[in-house]
Write a structure and sequence with these properties.
Blueprint: H1 7-26, E1 31-36, E2 41-45, H2 64-68, H3 76-85, E3 91-96, E4 99-109, E5 115-124, H4 126-140, E6 145-149, E7 154-157, H5 159-165, H6 170-173, H7 187-200, E8 204-212, E9 218-230, E10 233-242, H8 244-252, H9 257-266, E11 270-275, E12 280-283, H10 285-291, H11 310-323, E13 325-334, E14 340-351, E15 357-366, H12 368-382, H13 392-409, E16 412-421, H14 423-430, H15 432-447, E17 455-458, E18 463-471, H16 474-489, E19 492-494, E20 497-499, E21 502-511, H17 521-540, E22 547-549, H18 557-574, E23 577-586, E24 592-603, E25 607-609, H19 611-621, H20 624-646, E26 653-655, H21 660-663, H22 668-679, E27 687-691, H23 692-697, H24 699-708, E28 711-717, H25 724-728, E29 734-737, H26 739-742, H27 749-765, E30 768-771, H28 777-783, E31 790-791, H29 802-811
Parallel strand pairs: 21-22, 24-26, 27-28, 28-29, 29-30, 30-31
Antiparallel strand pairs: 1-2, 1-5, 3-4, 4-5, 6-7, 6-10, 8-9, 9-10, 11-12, 11-15, 13-14, 14-15, 16-18, 16-21, 17-18, 19-20, 23-24, 23-31, 24-25
Helix pairs in contact: 13-17, 14-15, 18-19, 20-22, 20-29
């Protein structure tokens, strides 16, 4: 007979499971929370709350606006949560007090799949950033020039790099884009190389590259470019060595004896001359010091005395016989004391006046310190310093290679995402040294649980990832997961004390059927790792379960996106998109002189939606072209009405925003011409706003718009770090200072210096300057001490409807 369970027993069991789950979540080494659609906290748990001085669920009932003490809907955490409510899964970095966090958000859905809120997790990256600081100190002391840059702008340079570029300090150097240092004739080749590095994730070595210094002079460098992860983003690490002297020395070997002798002695590298049998004829003073010999000893020396490995000499002679010269030929040479040096030889065959070959002449460069530093730097760039396991960057690269192998040869690969349970308790209770020892023991156990071709990586504080390759069936993946969990079940020993830690494992598999057409290897790798991460969280949510397989049926991201796209198309057809306006104020007269157009989506079910939630989708789908056109035409129609309302008393300028896609749209000029004709506005009263990056990508478009009579304003100026020389050549009328800089004036000297520089730049180039984001009287007072002509922000007015703007214009207030 079936056992009958009372309703009370069921409820009691549910309560008990809820309490167990709550206790488990409160011990998660992170901060977890949920918010509802009104952006109010419904849960906040995790050991990480202690670092912020908060108790579990202390924020429940508060809105995000209250928690962060802001009313700005564009504030980063708030904007990210709204994106999650729109179906995305964004991630962002945030500083809270003295702690640094990496936050990830996902939509929270009910049983029917409807988004009812957001679930978030914040991981403490403070220690990681401290390690990055120590890493930078190592780079700062490097004997070679180290540059870090993105595709267009410099991000960091060490002291040697500043000397090479001729920059007085880092701040001055970062004012320039990387293209300032690349001569025009080499730029396309550099662009091609950067694209190849980004595509292949491989190190690039350039033997000789001309670099233009800040003072306009040129130096020749030897360059190694390595893809790295810098401050949460992909970047490129450049190791540059000034080889100008070496090039001069090589050229000098072909010139007159007098000039040759001068360079021969002044070179920073060893220069030598030998007979065919290796007998030394000459060596400069640098070479004598390098190898520890005196000039008196030179006649009795032979080239073979310098080679640490006779095989290197045979290889050198074979190359010289075949080619007649070598460039940067790698050899290991020894000094008189027996010290081994890593060297590179550039040499040619020596001829007498009759053209007969009589020996060799060349340059020996000691690269021992550089090689040691490069190896150390590259290893640290790709490995975790505590465990020496591959780090996130190297692991991602190997996953991409594994995916390419499956696409090419078939078979299966799998990614396992591991997280230690209760590690936070050990780390906080016994200290970070104890925590580091536990992490090291975990790394050794994991390495002992996998096969030779597999990869174990450490990607976070207590997070590890595994890549299993050359698999043929799912049972092999599950067997590996069993081995790992069994290895982790054993207690860890720390100072004679036994400590038990659990582990949660998420598994995502990749087969030929997993290939996503149209996605790059990088995108497929990111998807696979995210799936494993998601499965790991599912494992954590199941009491008594060590691991969970990712279920592809739960990945509804694509469906949500299609649904949002359909809704946006309907919004464009049915007039759900509403144009709002924000005044631009003259800081001289205090009166309204311009009005910027903004757009909001008045969704029939979700209410007013901020642009951050739908503009990215509009860009991706191409709907931004129709959206921009609607907003500009409606704004021009309102401008005509306001001009009539004011009766021509004063000029009023409209500032519509142009997206990147619209700015580059071949039909833009025809569209604008039609809008002007239909609304009757003067193109001279319209100032089109585009971002710094967009306008520098298509400078010819600015000239076309200027020819039609439109004004051009660069929006969010200061983010793009454009070359000032390049900016001078653009046909623009105004600069709008990015709000992030404006909000620091009156209290942050660096922001004040940046704002003053932009204002001075505008003054020099004859451009109007608008300070965006003015929110306090203190900011306004400071700006009025400068020559900044215009201001915009919530201190004056928020985004308003057309009717509210009309009322404001009639009232004609003065700030």
């Amino acid at each position: 007979m079936r056992k009958i369970t009372s309703q009370g027993q069921v409820i009691e069991s549910l309560h008990r499971r809820e309490e167990e789950l709550s206790l488990l979540l409160e011990q998660v080494p992170a901060i977890l929370w949920t918010v509802d659609r009104e952006l109010k906290f419904t849960t906040s748990v995790g050991v990480g709350l202690e670092a912020l001085g908060l108790e579990p669920d202390a924020a429940v009932g508060q809105s995000l606006f209250e928690f962060f003490r802001t009313d700005d809907p564009e504030f980063l955490p708030i904007a990210m949560h709204r994106r999650a409510l729109a179906g995305e899964s964004p991630a962002y970095d945030l500083e809270l007090g003295e702690r640094s966090y990496r936050s990830r958000l996902r939509p929270l859905r009910n049983a029917e799949g409807t988004i009812v809120g957001v679930i978030g997790a914040a991981f403490d990256q403070t220690e990681q950033k401290r390690a990055e600081h120590e890493y930078r100190q190592l780079i700062e002391q490097a004997p070679v020039a180290v540059f870090v840059h993105s595709r267009d702008r410099l991000l960091y340079a060490n002291s040697a790099a500043l000397r090479l570029a001729g920059a007085p300090n880092l701040e001055r150097l970062l004012e320039y884009s990387i293209w300032h240092f690349v001569p025009e004739e080499f730029r396309q080749a550099v662009v091609d190389n950067l694209e190849a590095i980004e595509r292949d994730k491989q190190t690039l070595e350039v033997e000789k590259l001309r670099l233009r210094r800040l003072d306009g002079s040129n130096r020749y460098i030897e360059l190694k470019v390595i893809p790295i992860w810098f401050e949460g983003k992909e970047a490129l690490l450049n190791l540059a060595r000034d080889v100008t002297g070496e090039l001069l020395a090589k050229r000098a070997l072909e010139e007159s004896e007098t000039r040759y002798r001068r360079i021969f002695e002044d070179s920073r590298d060893a220069i030598y001359v030998t007979e065919f049998d290796g007998a030394m004829v000459a060596m400069n003073s640098t070479g004598m010091r390098m190898f520890g010999y005196s000039s008196e000893e030179l006649p009795g020396l032979n080239a073979r005395d310098f080679y640490a490995d006779p095989g290197d000499r045979r290889a050198f002679q074979a190359a010289m016989s075949a080619e007649g010269s070598v460039d940067d030929f790698p050899v290991r040479l020894k000094t008189k004391s027996g010290e081994i040096l890593d060297c590179e030889i550039t040499a040619t065959v020596r001829r007498d006046h009759a053209g007969r070959e009589i020996g060799y002449q060349g340059i020996i460069r000691d690269v021992t310190e550089r090689r040691r530093f490069e190896e150390q730097l590259q290893r640290r760039a790709l490995h975790d310093p505590l465990t020496d396991l591959p780090n996130r960057t190297l692991f991602w690269d190997r996953v991409e290679q594994a995916i390419a192998g499956v696409e090419r040869d078939g078979g299966m690969a799998a990614v396992l995402f591991l997280d230690l349970d209760r590690f936070k308790v050990v780390n906080d209770g016994l200290g970070h040294m104890a925590g580091d020892e536990i992490i090291s023991q975990v790394a050794r156990r994991l390495q002992g649980s996998v096969r030779e071709p597999d990869t174990v990586a450490r990607v976070g504080g207590d997070e590890f990832t595994l890549l299993l390759q050359n698999l043929s069936r799912e049972e092999e993946v599950l067997a590996a997961a069993e081995r790992i969990t069994e290895a982790m079940e054993k207690d860890f020993t720390l100072g004679g004390q036994s400590i038990h830690l659990g582990i949660s494992v998420g598994i995502a598999q990749f087969t030929e059927d997993s290939v996503q057409p149209g996605l790059s290897l990088e995108e497929q790798a990111d998807r696979l790792i995210r799936n494993a991460d998601f499965a790991m969280y599912r494992a954590k949510q199941r009491p008594g379960s060590n691991f969970a397989l990712f279920d592809v049926s739960l990945d509804a991201t694509g469906g949500v996106r299609l649904e949002r796209e359909s809704e946006l198309r309907e919004a464009l057809r049915s007039g759900q998109l509403e144009v709002f306006y924000q005044p631009i104020i003259s800081l001289v007269s205090g009166r309204i002189g311009g009005i910027e157009t903004l757009v909001r989506w008045n969704h029939p079910q979700r209410g007013l939606i901020a642009p951050a939630e739908f503009l990215p989708l509009a860009e991706e789908t191409g709907l931004i072209l129709e959206l921009d056109a609607q907003v500009i035409e409606e704004g021009c129609r309102q401008l005509a009405q306001w001009s009539e309302l004011l009766g021509g008393d004063r000029p009023l300028f409209l500032h519509p925003n142009l997206s990147a896609s619209q700015f580059e749209n071949p039909a833009l000029l025809t569209q604008l011409e039609g809008i002007v004709e239909r609304t009757g506005v003067d193109p001279g009263s319209i100032e089109l706003e585009v971002t710094e990056h967009v306008v520098t990508q298509a400078p010819e478009r600015t000239r076309e718009l200027k020819h039609m009579g439109f004004g051009i304003a660069i929006d969010d100026f200061g983010r793009g770090y454009s070359s000032l020389l390049y900016l001078r050549r653009l046909a623009i009328d105004a600069l709008k200072i990015d709000a992030g800089f404006t909000q620091g004036v009156g209290r942050d000297r660096e922001d004040e210096a940046i704002v003053k520089t932009i204002i001075a730049l505008g003054e020099t180039l004859g451009l109007a300057v608008v300070a965006e984001g003015i929110e306090t009287e203190e900011q306004l007072a400071w700006l009025r001490t400068t020559t900044c002509g215009w201001g915009q922000g919530h201190l004056f007015a928020r985004a308003m409807t057309a009717e509210e703007i009309s009322t404001l214009l009639l009232r004609d207030p003065k700030w």
